[in-house]
Amino acid sequence: MYDVSKKKTIAQSAYELLEEVVEICEYNNLKYVLAPKIVFRYFRTNDFDDNFTMPEIYMTLPDCLKFIEVVGKNKHADRCLDYMMTNERYPSFNVSYVDTTKTYINLTRGFDFKYFGMKVTINIIRNDVKNRHLAYYETGWEENTHKAKSRDRWQNNLVKFFIAQSHKIYKDNYTKRLFKHFTKYYSRNPESESVFVRTYRKKRIYFPRKLFKETTDIELFGKSYRIPKNYEDFISAFYGVNWRSMDIPTYRFKNVIISDIIPYRDYINRLESTGITLGDVFDQQNTIRGEDIQNKSIVKSKTNAFNYAKRSGDRLYFYQSLMEDIDNIRKFREEKNYGELYEIFSEYDFQVREYLKNDLALCPCEELMEIECEILENNGEDELAERLRSLTPEEHKKPIVINNIDD
Questions:
Q1: What is the pLDDT of residues 184-233, one digit of tens each?
Q2: Concatenated DSSP letters of 79-144
Q3: Quick one: DSSP state of residue 211?
Q4: Buried/exposed 125-148: b ≥16 CB within 10 Å, e otherwise
Q5: CB 180 within 8 Å of CB 200
Q6: Of 362, 361, 365, 367, whose CA–CA distance to 334 is shortest?
Q7: How far apart are CA 196 and CA 200, in angstroms?
Q8: Which residue among 11, 151, 243, 335 is least packed, with the fewest CB closer than 10 Å?
Q9: Which pTM value belongs to this model?
Q10: What would the pLDDT profile of 179-192 be if each residue is shown by its tens digit?
């Protein structure tokens, strides 16, 4: 069984995994720095959004290759590396360190990833190598991923076609050859004045090499992490010189199924027990496109699959997040303190209303659903409360308790 009452946010779970990666680096004398997105937020607010789930670090190519070697030698049953040498469809020249005891399924990215757990992304700091074909190969590879849409440039489309045909012939061997090819060429020119990082379908971000020579530490969640000592230039290279006056982005669970208590394999098994495969859900993104619709029944079934997956993910999220505070919830309910209850239920309340617009009920379990109904009734919205009760499937009223598939 899985404990749903842990006092922990999704963000804290993500940063615990980041801490694990950092400990591996420190123990093995591997150099790294936190990615600019995290450093930017630290110096702007030092208040991390509870929905932040994708920590990143930067690491030189030699250190990244050593990291891969170390993790491979010290295998952990619940950890794995997702990258081009382990996954023939992996979309980028970087590495993901994945916790398979958790769930993180990006519904728009399809089977680009092999493991659907929470992850830390290791973005590789590359030498500035003057070789145009590397960029074309990398762009062509990305153009063949699940999310990619065709671009207008004929060069990109030509390379896309060439790589698609090569991959069709050689399968995972071609992906491994690409990784080795990138590794070989980006290892050259180790004294270049500038280096760069490139993330999925984004332009290169260049940094002076000397920026990574000196580091300092910052503290997050009680743990020290390394960043470039000249963090001003580091953040400016990524966001621009006006980064101190920029709006601070918020993080949203958009088209993502996420849980830090349920392994993704359990979730996928549960989905498939309903007759819906993960492939059905991923295919929906490429099917619902107006003029591309050929078969209305197929479109409807895949839309239902997508909606089911999304609602299941939301149920997992709200069940976990609300059960974290269940003692206070029950206390306020007994006291009929609906002001405090609404503060706790506000995010769930918003999503309930969105689902009801489509004649769907979002019910993590019967107890939490009934409290939401009481909040609605206290607010004079008896009709919404009745709709929520009547539209809720009986099976959704049961608490979410999933047995380990290995039990």
A1: 999 999 999 999 999 887 889 999 999 999 999 998 878 899 999 999 99
A2: EEEESTTT-TT--SSEEEEEETTSEEEETTTGGG-S--SEEEEEEEEEE----HHHHHHHHHHHTT
A3: G
A4: bbbbbeeeebebbbbbbbbbbbbb
A5: no
A6: 367
A7: 14
A8: 335
A9: 0.74
A10: 999 999 999 999 99
State the amino acid at position 155 in one-letter form: Q
Cα–Cα distance between 286 and 185 in angstroms, integer? 35
Angle (nearest 5°) at CA 6 between 332 and 356: 60
φ, ψ of residue 275 to 5 degrees: the values are 90, 10
Q: Nearest-5° angle of CA 391, CA 394, CA 400? A: 110
Whole-number Å distance between alpha carbons of 203 and 205: 6
**Among 118, 38, 126, residue whose Cα is nearest residue 82:** 118
CA distance readout (Å), 133 to 64, 93, 138, 178, 306: 23, 15, 9, 12, 38
Query: Which three-class secondary structure state does DSSP give residue 204?
Result: coil
User: What Cα–Cα distance (Å) separates residue 116 from each residue in 101, 207, 257?
Assistant: 10, 31, 10
Residue in the block written with tokens 């996954």:
87
Tokens of 350: 């918003």
* Backbone torsion region of residue 95, taken as left when φ is above 0, otherwise alpha when ψ lies between -120 and 50, otherwise beta: beta
